[in-house]
Amino acid sequence: MRSFLSHKKSDYFICAAVMLLLSLGLLSSNKYTLDILITTVYFCTIASAWNIMCGYTGQLSLGHGAFLGLAQYTSTLLYTKMDISPWLGMLAGGLTAMLLALLVGVLALRLKGPFFALATIALTTILEIFAVKFDGITGGSVGITIPYNPSLGNMIFKDYQPTYFLFLCLLALVLLTTIYISRSRLGSNLVAIRENDLTAASLGINVFRNQLYALMISSFFTGVVGTLYAQYVLFIDPAGSFSVIVSEKAALISIIGGAGTVFGPLIGGILLAPTEIFLRTWLGSTYQGAYLIVYGVVLIFVILTIPNGIAGTVSAYIRKCNCKTEQASGDD
Amino acid sequence: MLKVTELSTGYGENQVLFGVSIQIGQGEIAGMVGSNAAGKTTLLHTISGVNRVWAGKVEFCDENITKMTPQCRTERGLIQCPEGRRLFPSLNVLENLLIGSYSKRAKPKRNKSLKHVYEMFPILFERRYQPAGLMSGGEQQMCAIGRALMGDPALLIMDEPSLGLAPIIVQKVFEIIEQINREGVTILLVEQNVRKALSISAHAYAMESGKITMHGTGKELLQDENLRKTYLGI
Amino acid sequence: MKKLSWFLILMLASVTVLSGCSSSTPANTAKPAEVIKIGVIQPRSGPLAVSGEDSYWGTKIAIDMVNEAGGIKGKKIEAVVADVPNAGAAQNEVNRLIQNEKVKVITGIYGSAMAEVAAGICNRNEVLYWEHISVTDRLTKQGYKSVFRMHINGSLFGEQAAQIAESYAKKIGLDPTKATVAVVSENGDFGKSIAAGVDAYTKKAGTKIVLNELYDSKTTDTSPIVLKLKASNADIVIATSYINDGIDITKKSKVLDYSPKIFLGIGSGYGLAAYGKSLEKDAEGMIDLDPTSTPVLKNLDPNMAKAVEEFQKRFKAARGYDSPTVGYLAWQATWVLLNNVIATAGGTDNLAAMIKAAKELDIKVGSLPTGAGVKFDESGQNTRAVISAMQWQKGKLVTIYPDYLANAQGIMIPLPAWNKR
Amino acid sequence: MLLQLIVSGLLLGGIYALLSLGLSLIFGVSKFTNFAHGDFVMVGMYMAFVSYGMFTLTPYFSWPLVMLGGVGFALLLYLVARSTIEKSGLNQILVTLGLSMVLQNTVLLFFKSDYKSIPATFGSSIKLGTVFISTEMLIAFVIAVVITGGFFFFIKYTDTGRALRAVSDDRAASKLMGLPVNLLDPIAFCLGIVLACLAGALLMTVYPTTPTIGSGYNLIAWVTVVLGGLGYLQGALFSALLIGICETVSGFYLGADLRQAVYYVLFILVLVFRPQGLFAGLGMKKVKR
């Protein structure tokens, strides 16, 4: 546990390699391929943002949909009603998400395990109900269609490459932040809290404040990526924005990839997001729901057999190999 | 009756016991002393089967029980009265006692055992419908001992029975332990109250850092210079 | 560690190859010259799958029938089917159909969120989007050039519903300006847009709305809604519901002994087979406003009548029950799309020709099984879509309004008390 | 009107009690976080539907079949989840989320997505003063009360019931006392899931069902269990009735589209400010941990 959190240079190398590979997608002009890549990077980013809070503190949030939705509504309303550029709206959305995170944190962070998860689910559902109810502001359940006016200022583009590029930049930013945090005092505090919050507290770490910081940073990026996605799909509605399913996916991707590692959510996203799309395309139109059965079975299998996620398991395996070779050389 | 040979165990990657061997004869009181975190409770939990054995052997009545579940061990009369009493707070006193006689071994004798326990601790009869969590420490200890007795023990393991009790009650607890022993139950007693424990023990062990450092009769240990210095402050 | 990075790179490469495969194989095997490809998208998993599936079968049967009759100008229609349970999936699948399958026409979709996303992408990529069910007004108010909706929109739906209510009120001797109306609607886009339409019309007509209540269609117990209706004591109730809540509202009305003079249900909530099946004799006399699902074949053009009969037979064989309204809407929309738009334009290659063909359509009211005609306005909204009043009589739905679609007389108007039914 | 609302709410709450008792039991005994509980209610509804379809048994008579099926599904859950018991709660949540996905979509594959319902046996109501009581709901309520009574009798007076409560109180001590914990886990799972399935069968007499209906019941079950105090069975019973009443009353006075928001807000407030549950300390003992 302790050791797989230590960040070696090779971890950064892996991140850089994956990012480089992903950016090869910029050469494509096929919108379907780009859409798959954008969806993949979108989920990688959400999962990485989720990971900053939940992977490092062990608190399971199933309410990142609330941050995502709030930010999407903030930026979209600013754009459609007051004509404020989504570039600013993106920041505003991130900040509102952060404010919500502050509120959630102050109220709910002392809850543990399933109760934090349940509270965050309830919060998401409440926001969805309000978004439907106060239709004067939000447009109600019909949602909001963002008018298609391609320009850099509007963050709407004719082709998908610029959008994809923005997504990649954001993912890189989130990864860099994760790396920065994991090397900082905050990161080591968070890991200490996850391992044992009582011990951490006795070492003088302010458990609550550290978790709150992590939650706020995490929600900020969730909000920003939400805005980006809204400007890509050009449509938001309460059911899609304040969705528990998005939060569940972020958690699953992160945990299957390896929560608490820098590149775990990246691996999880790259594996799961396209898999889901392909399964839906292949099975979805012939057997209703069959792709979700496959998806569910795979998830159960992965969680039961490799609880540390792919990244955790793979690096544990490699460490074992390294140890052996070191021992062998030591014997000489 | 109980024979533990070269026992090693621990939690996760941390080894706690390093080759512990003890032996308890039929019908005696065996004492075990040692400072905090010496590994006493770990040893008892391993004997009861809650902890997995890494290496070594546990034999009970000439039967190898090293790999048995805790449940099988209670069926053979190996009963533990755990540290901190560990009563079930939302169950009432009677229910707590009945839990003690869940095993096939004890169930047929349930009514007899219950009568016996009530005779030994009249207070439990008075409070039989009271939630166990709402009683005083001494009463809770009585209840815990009663619950253990309900299991028809052949060997009763007692982990710190006097911990946190008022001196008068401590005295009473030790009287009870001797009484139980007189009725034919072998007892393994782990205590921090070293003087009292050693004075009633036929056989005693001292444990430090997961190893047995000393053993002999209770009197021998009580007179040992080192031990007196460490535990009795003399 | 190096091994790990190789592993990752391999993994990524395989994903890339996979996506490459899936995007290239179908394109290679298809022979674009001999078939006309049409994208068919519906939500077939997830919460909207019920009607999404019915809508899919309506479309599929229409395509099969056209193919069996020789296709269009000798070319067979190939349906490229996709499941779009949510807006994100719509984005992805529509892009796949356009980019990789090279379809030039997409039809669907039933769900409004997906419809909005799909319509936007189709318009940007110069692909014809042919919506057959979603009612959200906004779909055709975005200035899209290549987006058409065969079905009625929400506000017109509400308006026509209110008109029907008015005419029934007159029939039982209520003065429209003195009658009171209660509107309860599920709070999704369907209920809300209809409620708005009812509201607008009744304001014009001077009828008083005494209760305008929204509720969540996922609600498990509707007794508070029925009690509110009871407390409002309105003469006419217009209720927009999905099936779950529609059944429950009727059950709770009986349990709480509530019967207004006129109860008009709207949407699938009161018209699906499940409604009749689960309420049995309690469904008797309940009215559902929707395009009719019991067309009078003899009123139709003989060719159309024969086609509709064939459709009814096939739908029943495929799904095990008579087609609900959604099935007819999907079927007739696809039928018109294939026979009147694509056939006229000579294929799907020329978008301008298809748009022109669509705009020039002039099919008079009553020509299609649901009683609709086709005449698109500038925005692409069909102005000749109509709704009718259907009523449960002896366990079957019959059409009682308007007269040119009716195949039975309305009964139990005004509604008698429950113990007298 | 208020009286009518309270009566309707109580009847609804009676059925909610079954599902929350089951959840509370599993959480108490095995410390297992089941996020698929609502899906077992859905499964119960479908079993009742199938029994009606195949043997024309109404849920009042098909309960033995539903119970049998419930045991099967409980063992399935136990099989899948066994290795996560006593381990990280995170994995329990994720495994059950995955299981929920599998259950919903398997049902979808076999039964399609349309609403399934069975015709009402009575469909009438009884009038008491100004209050109307649905015959169906009343019977369901009475059955729920009988089952709940039986459940509490079992839990209170049998050896196994006592053992279950003991494990729920202190799992480690129960092991030390030689209670067969690895046998009691599946028993708790079976009881809990069977209760959920029975709740589903009873709900089937009044509501139609669809594969996705379970997630709503899952949240209701958790809200009830948290309001009642964790692992505290009587609390779950009272709060189920409370939630039932809360639903109908807030639905009437606040608007039917806000009713869920009301108990979710209540839920968060209780979690944050009264994590021991609403009823702890009101003359009822709370399990110490």
Describe this structure in words.
The complex is a heterotetramer of chains A (332), B (234), C (421) and D (289). Chain A has 332 residues and is mostly helical. Chain A has 15 helices and 2 strands. Chain A has helices at residues 9-23, 31-57, 64-82, 86-108, 113-133, 135-138, 161-183, 185-195, 197-202, 207-233, 238-241, 244-257, 264-283, 290-305, 309-331, and strands at residues 144-145, 235-236. Chain A has a two-stranded antiparallel sheet. By secondary structure, chain B is α/β, with parallel strands linked by helices. Chain B has a domain at 1-77 and 155-160 and 193-234: Rossmann fold (3-Layer(aba) Sandwich). In chain B, the strands form 2 sheets. In chain B, strands 6-7-8-3-9-10 form a 6-stranded mixed beta sheet, sandwiched between helices. The relative contact order of chain B is 0.19. The model of chain B has no long low-confidence stretch (mean pLDDT 91). Chain C has 421 residues and is α/β, with parallel strands linked by helices. Helices cover 46% and strands 16% of the residues of chain C. Chain C has 13 helices and 12 strands. Chain C has helices spanning 2-29, 49-68, 87-99, 112-124, 154-171, 189-205, 223-232, 243-255, 268-271, 273-279, 302-319, 325-345, 351-360; strands at 35-42, 76-83, 105-108, 128-131, 147-149, 180-186, 208-215, 236-240, 262-266, 287-290, 388-393, 396-401. In chain C, the strands form 2 sheets. A 7-stranded mixed beta sheet of chain C has the order 7-6-8-9-10-11-12, sandwiched between helices. A 5-stranded parallel beta sheet of chain C has the order 2-1-3-4-5, with helices on both faces. The model of chain C is unreliable at 20-32 (pLDDT under 50). Chain D is an all-alpha fold and 289 residues long. Helix content of chain D is 71%, strand content 3%. Chain D has 11 helices and 2 strands. Chain D starts with a helix and ends in a 16-residue tail after the last helix. Residues 283-289 of chain D have low confidence and may be disordered. Classes of the chains: A mainly alpha (332), B alpha/beta (234), C alpha/beta (421), D mainly alpha (289). The interface between A and C is large, with 55 and 55 residues.
